[in-house]
Write a structure and sequence with these properties.
alpha+beta, five-stranded mixed β-sheet, 12 helices, 53% helix, rod-shaped
Length: 505
């Protein structure tokens, strides 16, 4: 017995197979080459086949006209010869002709017309019947005077020769060539029936000069299409091989580009492929070398800057030890620790390594109280409404995010009113931190763009030309890394408001 997982999972590969095949055909370079080659060859073969078929159709039409004239001429002669004989001698003549080897026509006299089923779906057969009928009526005036005349091109299989039900296949072999009525390849017979006297029907049946001329119109058969399909398959196979050889260097190029994106230093690619591919690989190798030199120079530069910054930080730490006020000394140490962490973080960012700051419970209300106290010491009016709440996250990253929000609020709302900071637990169990200023706000159309890197609004750029538009994007990234959410909005009573929702500790 299969498990539920097997029952529910087994159709997935079947559903995914058409998607992978469609992706290969329409998205990959190999698939598009195959489609182009297959479509082009199929179109060429279709046009060639249609032109060829048109020529064959014209030839068969000409053969049909000649065959109709030939058979009609023979039938006219036979009808005239039989009509000139007295009715009593006609059977004797027919019997004598059969004994001597027969004629090109099978001739019978019947007391009624024999039902004959014409060949279905053959336009050329209908044209042949029409032309034979017209020539008979034109050459035999007695048939044109209302005498019934029936002409049909029919299959010899099951063809009746008398109203009693006698079949063509029942006749002696000396009368009919057996190969013409063989089931595997029967030749069509033209049957002409005319009422020569009331109650007496002349039955003439004969094959055409080329019994199998209609087979030429059976053009789109497996015998004709198989070589073309094999040619298409061979062309597609060769195309796949050629395109794979062309795209193999491109695959290596894309893999090397992905490794460069992950800051992995791959070896220079081997230059191979067509001229265009070789030029692309050479350009990529040159670009890779320039990037490697640039990254090395940048790391050395920031390493020097980090070293130079740590020296004054160390001096400040030593001088802070001389302070008599322990509380002030602790605040100095805390600020210097944050500054030292920022220097290390900047160096880590340049090296593109993860910042391994440990997550820990953080009393967010104490963090806000310290930030608000520092802002007030700087002369900025800030109001705080807090309660003892704890969040779980990276302390330095969260301080940086909230510090960016306070800096923005104090800068853009300066002189309009105090910055309002509040916090509390929301209905989802998250800790909500709200920062509101009383500045001009943000155009509604620009709210959706806030938080994207390098996004600066017109009034902000006019007030601070040196900004880069990264503050709110850093806030969004830090909050998202903690599993929280950020909401920007214009406050109904004026000003701009940012709300952070952080997971409780």
């Amino acid at each position: 017995m299969r498990s539920d997982a097997e029952d529910t999972g087994s159709p997935a590969p079947l559903r995914a197979w058409p998607q992978r095949f469609a992706s290969f055909l329409f998205d990959s370079l190999q698939g598009r080459f195959v489609l182009a080659m297959l479509g082009g060859l199929a179109l060429v073969q279709l046009v060639v086949n249609l032109l060829w078929y048109s020529q064959i159709e014209q030839r068969v039409r000409r053969q049909t006209e000649l065959a109709a004239h030939h058979v009609a001429s023979g039938a006219i002669g036979a009808v005239r010869a039989l009509r000139e004989l007295p009715a009593a001698y006609r059977p004797l003549l027919i019997e004598q002709l059969r004994t001597m080897g027969g004629t090109r026509f099978l001739v019978f006299f019947n007391n009624a017309a024999v039902p004959v089923q014409p060949l279905p779906g053959q336009p050329m057969a209908r044209m042949l019947e029409q032309q034979v009928t017209q020539e008979l009526a034109a050459q035999l005036p007695q048939l044109n005077g209302g005498t019934p005349l029936r002409v049909a091109l029919a299959s010899p299989i099951g063809l009746a020769v008398s109203p009693s039900g006698a079949l063509l296949s029942d006749l002696p072999e000396s009368w009919v060539e057996p190969s013409l009525i063989a089931a595997e390849r029967p030749a069509p017979f033209l049957v002409i029936q005319a009422e020569t006297e009331p109650g007496q029907w002349l039955y003439l049946s004969s094959t055409l000069p080329d019994p199998y001329f209609l087979e030429q119109l059976e053009f789109f058969t497996w015998q004709r299409l198989t070589p073309q399909l094999l040619a298409l398959g061979l062309a597609v196979g060769l195309t796949l091989i050629a395109v794979r050889a062309i795209t193999r260097p491109l695959a290596g190029l894309s893999q090397a580009a992905a490794r460069v994106g992950r800051r992995v230093a791959p070896k220079p690619l081997r230059v191979s492929g067509t001229q265009e591919v070789r030029q692309a690989i050479e350009a990529f190798n040159d670009m890779q070398e320039r990037i490697r030199r640039y990254i090395g120079d940048r790391e050395r530069l920031f390493a020097s800057i980090s070293h130079d910054l740590r020296t004054p930080i160390t001096r400040l730490r030593l001088r802070s030890e001389l302070l008599d006020d322990t509380a002030v000394q602790d605040e100095f140490h805390e600020d210097l620790d944050e500054l030292d962490m920022m220097v290390k973080t900047a160096l880590q960012i340049v090296k593109d390594t993860d910042i391994h700051e440990n997550r820990a419970p953080l009393r967010i209300d104490l963090v806000l109280q310290k930030m608000v106290r520092d802002a007030r010491m700087g002369g900025h009016p800030v109001e705080l409404q807090s309660e003892p709440l704890t969040v779980f996250g990276k302390p330095l990253a969260l301080k940086r995010a909230i510090g960016n929000l306070l800096d923005n609020a104090m800068f853009y709302g300066e002189g309009e009113g105090p910055v309002e900071v509040s916090m509390g637990a929301d209905e989802d169990g998250m800790v909500a931190v709200t920062v509101r200023d009383h500045g001009p706000g943000v155009p509604e159309a620009a709210l959706a763009r806030l938080g994207q890197p390098y996004t600066r609004l017109e009034h902000g750029a006019a007030q601070r030309k040196e900004g880069l538009g990264l503050g709110l994007s850093i806030v969004r990234e830090i909050v998202a890394d903690h599993g929280g959410a950020v909401r920007f909005r214009n406050h109904p009573e004026g000003g701009f408001e940012v709300r952070l929702a952080l997971p409780a500790g």
